[in-house]
Amino acid sequence: MKHLLSIDDLSTDEIHALFATAADMHDVQSREVKKLPALRGRTVVNMFFEDSTRTRSSFEIAGKWLSADVINVSAKGSSTSKGESLRDTVLTVCAMGVDGLVIRHPASGAAVQVSEWVDASVVNAGDGMHEHPTQALLDAYTLQRRLGSLEGRHVAIIGDLTHSRVFRSNVQCLTRLGARVTVVAPPTLMPSGIGAWSASAGFETSYDVDAVLPDADAVMMLRVQRERMSGAYFPSAREYTVGYGLTRNRLALLKPDVPICHPGPMNRGLEIAADAADAAQSVVLEQVSSGLAIRMAVLYHLLAGEPQGGTA
Amino acid sequence: MQMPAPGTRPDTGPERADRTVLDARDISRALTRISHELLERNKGADDLVLLGLHTRGVPLARRIAERIAAVEGAPVAVGELDVTLYRDDLRSQPTRRAHKTALPAGGIDRKVVVLVDDVLFSGRTIRAALDALADLGRPSAVRLAVLVDRGHRQLPIRADHVGKNLPSALAERVSVRLTEIDGTDEVSIS
């Protein structure tokens, strides 16, 4: 494993190997000395050209707990704001002898592009509306811990699918692990051409939340991404909530103890009601701690072994 | 744990002449003796924590714990320790899978920790284990018990309790098989 750009890069065995490593990394969080020496002397750069709290801090802590040196570069305050191209910024940073590059960029495909320019291992931390593989891994890992196995379990992914890279990565990851996936969105937020994809990838689509919820073994709510919306996708926030939000009434439709995920940040009262976000079955905070473990596992698998491809 | 290139264990090519050095009864006797030595040295099982090193140290630690419990009439704390992330050769090999580290409920602070492994060879695994222990707590003492000491140390490390000293050539291969993992109890050299 040289890069992590897409869930498609991973074999099912590699996903299970990452989960096994993550389980060990998870234990570190409860230790007094939260430090492992595995990545001593390696340097990881977090390049975030889009706002992020949890993903960036999660990668930063993950790198630091593995003893790597971690620095953060964000678009604001970097030479990008002076007009430097992505290629020049990336090559400049890599010329400093960086081993791992964690990149988030608003353009779909940015991480793949960057991986062709540099020798360092590249981790895609979200590229536009394309993929967010570590999020998918941590979601699947969280659900697997809760449900035992994902084989044959029914996962409902509900919300703004059009703008969601989380959904795109999650569908691949969950179906690979044997889960049955149904994605639900209002017609305006259902990606165009999803019919062909769902047929080939083997997941279902629906416009009706209330019909899907009673059968679900896990529910994943997606954020309404207003910052990516250029037009009006629904008449009002209220109307979205009534049609597609996980409200208190809908909570009652779920089987007992069905885990509720949300990749965050949550729009409370829009796609998810406080009753659902704070319910005992909500795994939102568990996702955060799992995310740390998964990112430690990813960095470990990419950077700890002997260098692959390119020069060290 | 052995140090040479990955995949050296447990395969034994048909053309290779395997020589059994310890059979199941030898292993059993060696473990019983180590258990008694530990008790004698520690003056009882109080504060004793047995930590098996992955992979084959784990069942060995459990077996020693059973023997000690039988003698003392009280259970002794057992755990497992994985040192993968502390190895000094991570960079020279493909990524290794980490295993589970599980400490007994009482932790290791102020306890006498006995590291248990199958083969003592270069000593690098034990070096890594000592580093790992330092991150997990502060034992009052650390001891080392191994089933086989085959020599060729690369670090100033020695075992406190040895099942069998097995002088070996560097090119030789010492294989430990245990029922829990391999279906049979045997130590062989080839």
UniProtKB/TrEMBL annotation, chain A:
<feature type="binding site">
    <location>
        <position position="55"/>
    </location>
    <ligand>
        <name>carbamoyl phosphate</name>
    </ligand>
</feature>
<feature type="binding site">
    <location>
        <position position="135"/>
    </location>
    <ligand>
        <name>carbamoyl phosphate</name>
    </ligand>
</feature>
<protein>
    <recommendedName>
        <fullName>Aspartate carbamoyltransferase</fullName>
        <ecNumber>2.1.3.2</ecNumber>
    </recommendedName>
</protein>
<feature type="binding site">
    <location>
        <position position="82"/>
    </location>
    <ligand>
        <name>L-aspartate</name>
    </ligand>
</feature>
<dbReference type="InterPro" id="IPR006130">
    <property type="entry name" value="Asp/Orn_carbamoylTrfase"/>
</dbReference>
<keyword id="KW-0808">Transferase</keyword>
<feature type="binding site">
    <location>
        <position position="132"/>
    </location>
    <ligand>
        <name>carbamoyl phosphate</name>
    </ligand>
</feature>
<dbReference type="Pfam" id="PF02729">
    <property type="entry name" value="OTCace_N"/>
</dbReference>
<feature type="binding site">
    <location>
        <position position="264"/>
    </location>
    <ligand>
        <name>carbamoyl phosphate</name>
    </ligand>
</feature>
<dbReference type="InterPro" id="IPR006131">
    <property type="entry name" value="Asp_carbamoyltransf_Asp/Orn-bd"/>
</dbReference>
<feature type="binding site">
    <location>
        <position position="165"/>
    </location>
    <ligand>
        <name>L-aspartate</name>
    </ligand>
</feature>
<dbReference type="InterPro" id="IPR002082">
    <property type="entry name" value="Asp_carbamoyltransf"/>
</dbReference>
<comment type="subunit">
    <text>Heterododecamer (2C3:3R2) of six catalytic PyrB chains organized as two trimers (C3), and six regulatory PyrI chains organized as three dimers (R2).</text>
</comment>
<comment type="function">
    <text>Catalyzes the condensation of carbamoyl phosphate and aspartate to form carbamoyl aspartate and inorganic phosphate, the committed step in the de novo pyrimidine nucleotide biosynthesis pathway.</text>
</comment>
<feature type="binding site">
    <location>
        <position position="54"/>
    </location>
    <ligand>
        <name>carbamoyl phosphate</name>
    </ligand>
</feature>
<feature type="binding site">
    <location>
        <position position="104"/>
    </location>
    <ligand>
        <name>carbamoyl phosphate</name>
    </ligand>
</feature>
<feature type="binding site">
    <location>
        <position position="223"/>
    </location>
    <ligand>
        <name>L-aspartate</name>
    </ligand>
</feature>
<comment type="pathway">
    <text>Pyrimidine metabolism; UMP biosynthesis via de novo pathway; (S)-dihydroorotate from bicarbonate: step 2/3.</text>
</comment>
<dbReference type="Pfam" id="PF00185">
    <property type="entry name" value="OTCace"/>
</dbReference>
<feature type="domain" description="Aspartate/ornithine carbamoyltransferase Asp/Orn-binding">
    <location>
        <begin position="152"/>
        <end position="302"/>
    </location>
</feature>
<feature type="binding site">
    <location>
        <position position="265"/>
    </location>
    <ligand>
        <name>carbamoyl phosphate</name>
    </ligand>
</feature>
<comment type="similarity">
    <text>Belongs to the aspartate/ornithine carbamoyltransferase superfamily. ATCase family.</text>
</comment>
<dbReference type="GO" id="GO:0004070">
    <property type="term" value="F:aspartate carbamoyltransferase activity"/>
</dbReference>
<keyword id="KW-0665">Pyrimidine biosynthesis</keyword>
<dbReference type="InterPro" id="IPR036901">
    <property type="entry name" value="Asp/Orn_carbamoylTrfase_sf"/>
</dbReference>
<dbReference type="InterPro" id="IPR006132">
    <property type="entry name" value="Asp/Orn_carbamoyltranf_P-bd"/>
</dbReference>
<feature type="domain" description="Aspartate/ornithine carbamoyltransferase carbamoyl-P binding">
    <location>
        <begin position="2"/>
        <end position="144"/>
    </location>
</feature>
